[in-house]
Specification:
127 residues; 7-stranded mixed sheet; 4-stranded antiparallel sheet; 11 strands; 0% helix; globular
Length: 127
Amino acid sequence: QVQLVESGGGLVQPGGSLRLCCAVSGRTFSRYAMGWFRQAPGKEREFVAAISWSGGTTYYADSVKGRFTISKENAEDTVYLQMNSLKPEDTAVYYCAAVSGAYSGAFYYRPYDYDYWGQGTQVTVSS
């Protein structure tokens, strides 16, 4: 059984930074493509960022491009989301997700492509 556990969320002022972590356990982490999604109250879950299992390919939603960075540390079985220049509209529950059996350079941005999900971590951007 694969488990994903997010951490690093919290309250931050506009313009601030946070780094989210997602620890993966259960199987060979390096073969998973990973992604981050978020869901604000009353809204659908939306794609934020994705990374291939090789770590060589990344993809971002337009709303976070240039501000967020996704990275993957296979030796630590962890994926990160560095979030800079945060805005109030970034407030949401952030979820990490994993795709098993992915191609080395492939990334995925549709929720239904993902096989495993974490429980989410709250990010609140407010003054």
